[in-house]
Design a protein that fits this description.
- The chain contains eleven helices and eight strands.
- The protein is of the alpha/beta class and about 210 residues long.
Length: about 210
């Protein structure tokens, strides 16, 4: 990491323990309304934006608007977390402080819309640690396409070999790999598949471990 100038963070599942929250809330809503869903479809979409709702929804009782119910899950959860505390992952603040001390730049590249990601980052009190935030609105194709990570390097004015991506998901790891940027996987809900783990600089248990590596 001698050439390292920029560390690019994913957000959901990497910085914040939000993926599990959304999953729990979806399961609870499904149970309340008698809806049957396939949660694996949800987990397979983590890190990207290609969520196949028709496959996710197995059955909904007559008269139940399942799409409306699930559309409210993330906004309601974000309202709650911003009001009552954003669940930051272990080692996040330690890592951000270390990057600041070493004069290394930090950015966020997330598939989550800025209306949500910006609120969470600000509510967590860490907005000022980052040089910039890119979201799916800033690129044509979202993860696992490499676009957002290439855009981050371009915006920062660094070569791909001078950056490091931190990801939790298979989609994010594949995006970094396709961009030719070294990446570290910090697994969240799922362990990385073999192709993602094999291509990673490292697979570690927490951001605290990443901080100790830099």
């Amino acid at each position: 990491m001698d050439e390292l100038q920029l560390v690019i963070f994913d957000m959901d599942g990497l910085m914040f323990d939000t993926e599990r929250r959304y999953g729990r809330d979806m399961e609870a809503a499904a149970e309340r309304h008698g809806i049957e869903v396939d949660m694996q479809v949800l987990w397979d979409s983590v890190g990207g934006t290609q969520f196949d709702f028709d496959r996710f929804l197995v059955h909904a009782p007559e008269g139940v608007d399942a799409e409306k119910i699930f559309d409210a899950i993330v906004p309601d959860a974000i309202d709650d977390m911003c009001a009552n505390g954003v669940p930051m992952k272990k080692g996040l603040l330690q890592l951000l402080e270390k990057l600041k001390r070493k004069g290394l730049r930090a950015a966020v590249a997330t598939s989550t819309d800025i209306a949500y990601s910006g609120r969470l980052i600000k509510a967590a009190g860490i907005w000022d640690y980052f040089d910039f935030v890119l979201t799916r609105r800033d690129v044509v194709y979202s993860k696992p396409a490499p676009d957002i990570y290439l855009a981050a390097c371009k915006k920062a004015g660094v070569e791909c070999c001078q950056a490091l991506v931190l990801e939790d998901s298979a989609n994010g790891g594949r995006a970094a790999k396709a961009a030719g940027i070294p990446y570290i996987i910090v697994p969240d809900v799922l362990q990385p598949p073999e192709d993602v783990a094999r291509g990673a600089y490292a697979v570690v248990d927490s951001l605290e471990t990443v901080a100790n590596m830099i």
